[in-house]
Amino acid sequence: MGKKIKRIGILTAGGDSPGLNAAIRGVGKTALGYYGMEIIGFRDGFRGLVDNRRIKLDKSTLAGILTVGGTILGTSRDKPHRMVIDGRTRDMTSVIVDNYHKWGLDCLVCLGGGGTQKNALRLHQAGLNVITLPKTIDNDVAMTDATFGFATALDIATETIDRLHSTAHSHHRIIVAEIMGHRSGWLALGAGLAGGADVILIPEIPYDVVKIADAIRRRSRHGTNFSIVAVAEGAMSRDDFRAMTAAEKKLERAKTLHDKKEAKIELATLEVRHAGNTMCLAKHLEELTQLESRVTILGYVQRGGTPSAADRVLATRLGSACADLIHEEHYGVMVAARGDDTEAVPLEKVAGKRKNVPPDHSWVKAARRVGTCLGD
Ligand code: F6P
User: Fold this and answer.
1) What is the 229 CA–ligand 1 centroid distance (Å)?
2) 340 and 318: one domain?
3) Are 367 and 200 a contacting pair, CB within 8 Å?
4) 245, 271, 303: which is the final residue of a domain?
5) Which mutation among 17, 111, 135, 138 tests ligand 1's pocket best, with the greatest number of atoms within 8 A of CB?
6) How remote is the CA of residue 15 from the centroid of ligand 1, in Å?
């Protein structure tokens, strides 16, 4: 009897990111063309596997997608164990497990960020053969040198900072550019460094607004009447950081349902208040420096459009290595980028962890050396 042809399921989950299609193509072309496997795409993240929304991936569907932004499969932030179905939150893990077997899958490939790694581990623990690839413009997935999407977003954010320079200079203004990154500041730090921002604020380094104003005033005294502030959306003042940390600790320590609910409300209130932080920061800096301030929120342009060459290369080599692992039946792992090579990292080592910017990272040190204010 001939060997059974392997059948792979593939989905993209979480926020979209440039390079997702390049990765789907990398997995798909290697699996189909090199190993002779079959591949089925599931639409809109884990929900597609619940609803049996499929798309057969063949030579023609995989052609012409390398340079296309977004994901041909669609995506969602649905979690298998907490999915809203007909208005009710339900655990759909067993439905996913049944459908995995119904479609005769040998492996499920999940392309996603931190949340997806956790969800993939849960499915692996429920008995499925799972492999993940690390994607996110935030570059904050643990145990990998890089995630695809980051390089493209970095180029976009850097170009924006370049463009803001001339207008800030002409009007003698402070321009505060808000860059994505709720929990980690790789993108703001990288773009700030590459674009020569005068101030870079990231979640890992809580700031003091007076120190930022001092740095801007110092520039004015030396005849430079404009400043560019690159701020990650999750950057916060020391006071806010203290309050947020206290609320998080309270939630961790909460024993009763009532205490948990209270702590969650406190945390949510702080998060809502923080949503308008960039506008408040600009206003505060205007008051302290007497320089006119403006805000530019880069938002979703950072996630849209064609992936950069670096992301296409990364996504293709991770995708292709993923098909190799399926061939070897090496499951329960994330395909990490390690130098010029790839490495299969057990999902247990990735899930629930985040790669933050270390305060002594070489990018941080370099920024300080060239005179950039980091707000501390
Ligand atoms: O995780 C990637 C990311 O782009 C973050 O930088 C950003 O805070 C978040 O997604 C926005 O998510 P959503 O698409 O759900 O608005």
Assistant:
1) 21
2) yes
3) yes
4) 303
5) 138
6) 6
Q: Are residues 166 and 297 in the same domain?
A: yes
Mutation test residue for ligand 1: of 180, 231, 236, 298, the one with most atoms within 8 Å of CB: 180
Q: Which residue minimizes the CA distance to atom 12 of ligand 1?
A: 15
Q: Would you say residue 192 lies in a domain?
A: yes
Number of domains composing the chain: 2
In a domain, 360, yes or no: no
E strand or H helix that includes residue 169: helix 150-171
- 181: nearest Cα among 158, 161, 204: 204
pLDDT score at 1: 60
Residue 367 in this model has a pLDDT that exceeds 70 = yes
Q: Is residue 364 part of a domain?
A: no
Domain presence at residue 363? no
The string of pLDDT tens digits covering residues 161-203 is 999 999 999 999 999 999 999 999 999 999 999 999 999 999 9
Catalytic residues: 138
Range 78-84, long-range pairs (CB < 8 A, 24+ positions):
78/13, 78/44, 78/45, 78/46, 78/47, 78/50, 79/46, 79/115, 79/119, 80/46, 80/50, 80/119, 80/122, 80/123, 81/119, 81/122, 83/46, 83/47, 83/50
List, for residues 97-117, the tens digit of each pLDDT value.
999 999 999 999 999 999 999
Q: Are residues 105 and 201 in the same domain?
A: no
Pair (141, 25) in one structural domain = yes
Identify the residue whose tokens are 């190993």.
35
Token pair, residue 19, equals 């390079």
Q: Is there an atom of ligand 1 within 6 Å of 319 CB?
A: no
Mutate which of 79, 137, 154 for ligand 1 pocket (most atoms within 8 A of beta carbon)? 137
**Same domain (yes/no): 144, 130:** yes
Domain that holds residue 257: 153-303
* Ligand 1 contacts CB of residue 156 (under 6 A): no
Find the 222 Cα to ligand 1 centroid distance in Å.
38
Render pLDDT for 298-357 as a digit per residue (tens, 0 to 9). Answer: 999 999 999 999 999 999 999 999 999 999 999 999 999 999 999 999 999 999 999 999
Residue 136 near ligand 1, beta carbon < 6 Å? yes
Task: Tell me what pLDDT residue 321 has.
Answer: 98
